[in-house]
Amino acid sequence: MCGIVAYVGSQDAAPILLEGLQRLEYRGYDSAGLAVVNAKSLRTRKVKGRVADLAAVVPARFKGGSGIGHTRWATHGVPSDVNAHPHLDQEQRIAVVHNGIIENADELRRRLEADGIVFESETDSEVLSHLIGSTVKETDTLEEAVRRALKSVVGTYGIAVVDSHRPGEIVVARNGSPIVLGIGEKEMFAASDVAALIRYTRQVVHLEDGELAVLKADGFNTFTSDARETAKEPFTVDWEAGHYDNGGYEHYLLKEISEQPDTVARTLRGRLDDRFHIAHLGGLNMDPRESRSFRRVKIIGCGSAYYSGQIGAQLIEELARIPADAEPASEFRYRSPVVEADTLYIAISQSGETYDTLAAVQELKRKGGRVLGIVNTVGSAIARECDGGVYLHAGPEVSVASTKAFTSTAVAFALIALHLGRVRDLSPADGRRICDGLRKLPEQIKEILTQEEHIRTLAMKYADAPGMMFVGRVRGYPVAREGAQKLKEISYVHAEAYPASELKHGPLALISPELPTVAIVPDDELLDKNLTTLGEIRAREGRILMVGHRTAEAADDCIVVPKNETELDPILLTIPLQIFAYHAAVALGRDVDRPRNLAKSVTVE
Ligand code: G6P
């Protein structure tokens, strides 16, 4: 959500913090700030606005070899200069940046105010700087002060703390919000996301919930919340700094849409077995006997991850004939779910840090559920929490709206479904059919991408509609939901998705020339039924944009995509809808990569 960066070493911290914050801007971006420590003095700057606005107010001579920085996505208190982080204690000795939500902030605030402390901001985070500030005088180390202060805190946090009395030292702590350490040459980094570190180092260490770390230029130590030292193995991130560049595209979103032939190929690489027509997924950590033992599959995720889970459920039911369904992780975790030993749970997350999904996985684990993860970010919290899983290898996704992670997740589900199917009743011939279909995907995605100009023209034609209806049946329904999601999140055009079969049970009342419909109409056994629905819309003077494998008279406009195996078609049908949403958003002058009110990775409840 918000972004955290910290640096300690022989260089000046400020330029490194600003560069890191820029890399994190996609996570949260209504204000930004930093604090550096130089020869026992603390200097801070914070502003409402973007990182560029912060950079503009940081003086050229802003010296200091250690410091912390933050980009904020407001939860408590409006975006403003005072509510921006870092927050200081009364004596202006301690500076803290915080990601997460302090649930007992009001109570702590009242207690601190009764002791004479005057608060500057409306944030929950400011209690942390005052708590640490009032403890640090009684302790020998900053780490001890942070640990003691955190004992009275209820809620989630990733924090970084500096103390002007201890230049050259930073303390970070994690509980529910990610903190990654980066190991450099006589310098140390910390951040909420590797994106901020990757320019400087690829050697990283992830903190676990409840862990603290003390960073100095020459290394780091990690501790549990009861002060026991922990041993951490660094690992090498295989993403490179270049992966975070926009590669000459006007927007990350278009870059990420265009990367899909490669990203889908990477998700497939080395995973298809031509001898037995099965998928090899070593990370599942299951032998065939175990793979056969599940009687049900439950899939959880948030936002686009949830919609890709709906495609996954369909694939698993069709190919493995195991009852499967998807549910938003945010709902699942709160309804005291019944957890069964013979159900396989699958959690989906691009970032691997979405708090609702992580909390749902933790609830499942607590009840003894078997959970697999489909995750893009290696070593992320959800990946670590799961019993096994499939990494997408799609490379970092920077734009807030998910595209390449969505298609790669659907492909990962096809692999899981193939695997579960082939240890059950899916015939070798069907296994081969699916393997061949999967191999065709990258070339077919390239073919769809060549239609960008046609889709752009259509997007411009429909972009001024006050709203759009998206409909699809069975396999087409999750595609319609994701299409509506893409349109609403980046173009702010109201978009509603409905099963085509449900249209006449209510939403048909909305159909008029002002509300165009995007209809997902694959060439499958439901084609005739779908064409009948188009006729019903047409009879109410509704305009129709059809996405499918042929043109149809009932539709005003058509986007025709290459045909694959029926089960895999939803993956391809999604792509024109991404391009459509992108160009609609551009036509409407929206901030495509950073849509209002949204964040890439929602690490709070
Ligand atoms: C946020 C983003 C969505 C994303 C969802 C799940 O809401 O705006 O684009 O689909 O989080 O993210 P995850 O990283 O768990 O896939």
UniProtKB/TrEMBL annotation:
Catalytic-site annotation from UniProt: 2 (nucleophile), 600 (for fru-6p isomerization activity)
Catalytic activity: D-fructose 6-phosphate + L-glutamine = D-glucosamine 6-phosphate + L-glutamate
Major site of localization recorded for this protein: cytoplasm
Pfam (any one): GATase_6
UniProt subcellular location: Cytoplasm
InterPro entries the UniProt entry points to: GATase_2_dom, GFAT, GFAT_N, GlmS/AgaS_SIS, GlmS/FrlB_SIS, Ntn_hydrolases_N, SIS_dom, SIS_dom_sf
SUPFAM superfamilies: N-terminal nucleophile aminohydrolases (Ntn hydrolases), SIS domain
Superkingdom in the source lineage: Bacteria
Sorted UniProt keywords: Aminotransferase, Cytoplasm, Glutamine amidotransferase, Repeat, Transferase
GO biological process per UniProt: carbohydrate metabolic process; fructose 6-phosphate metabolic process; protein N-linked glycosylation; UDP-N-acetylglucosamine metabolic process
The SIS domain, residue ranges: 286-426, 458-595
Protein task: Catalyzes the first step in hexosamine metabolism, converting fructose-6P into glucosamine-6P using glutamine as a nitrogen source.
Subunit structure: Homodimer.
Protein name: Glutamine--fructose-6-phosphate aminotransferase [isomerizing]
Lineage start: Bacteria, Bacillati, Actinomycetota, Actinomycetes, Streptosporangiales
